[in-house]
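Holo prediction. Input below; ligand is iron/sulfur cluster.
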Amino acid sequence: MGGVTAALPANTFSGRLLGWYDRQGRSFVFRGTKDPYRVWLSEIMLQQTRTESVVPYYERFLRRFPDVQALAAADEEEVLRCWQGLGYYSRARNLHRAARQITREYGGAFPRTAEALRALPGVGPYTAAAVASIAFGEPVPAMDGNLIRVFARVTDERGDAGSPAVLRRLTDAARGLMPPDRPGDYNQALMDLGATVCTPGTPDCAACPVREYCLARRAGDPEALPVLPRKRPPKPIALNVLVILHDQRVYMRQRREALLKGMYVFALSESAPDEALAVLGFRDASIGYAGETRHVFTHRVWEMRLWTARVPGVPPALAGDFYTLAQLESLPIPTAMRAALILAQKELSP
Ligand code: SF4
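Structure of the complex:
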């Protein structure tokens, strides 16, 4: 696509785009603010989560942690609890670590450039560019899936959009057309265009404000772009989930593994239920099968068989603890445990 960017009249492309955005851009609670804390929070929440689903979480999180100082002062378990239901909990842990870093190293003021923002935990090139452009007006394109798709189509890029060289070309194209006075709006307009008009699958080119500059539309097959690397399907993992009950309480442990780190889960094992119980030190359990469920993560699927296990006693030096029905309310428990949690609640209800 060499030379294509220069051939696109930047003022008209961005003018058309921003005119459309001003008329019919989407309005969300997290739009219209330049507060970097709010922009950052919404961008982190919007990763891997649909915009409509984010709104109630965003509002609840802000009520509890209205600024970066409040977030930095909280303990991690409380932050995870506030994130419960959104998934991808490493986002919450990184948010919390980043808040502490901002208060400790920057006196509570956000770094103002994409480059400096990238030094924060959990802030990748996309999030750094989104915060820097929206909150601080830095002219950097925020290359999320929407911008990649729009520019692959506008420039008729036929290379693999997963390759660094192609991503660099698309980023250059986006930067070349960026208006210096409204970089944040430009990025958000492109996100909206990608989400509502230039969608994956068949785009609605007739409704597109930049259609006359779009080379893939002229080529006649914009739906074929971008060319994406083939994704591997998530790997299935068969797990037994044991809801271990004793004295009106249920066993849970806090995960140390990278996946769902810090969250509380029931006993999980790839071994048979009786073996899993023996490893934990439980004896003479009465075990009952309670059904199946599954949870899809990015790279794996947990195929879970649920069991109840009533145990007569608690082994010494047990990793994890037993909790009452009321105590379960205050633990951060991931959505992957939802079916098991319902089972535990039912078993513990008077
Ligand atoms: S003309 Fe069609 S393919 Fe091109 S940017 Fe607009 S919606 Fe996307």
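Strands lie at 235-246, 249-254, 264-265, 267-269, 286-296, 300-310, 321-323. That is the main takeaway for now.
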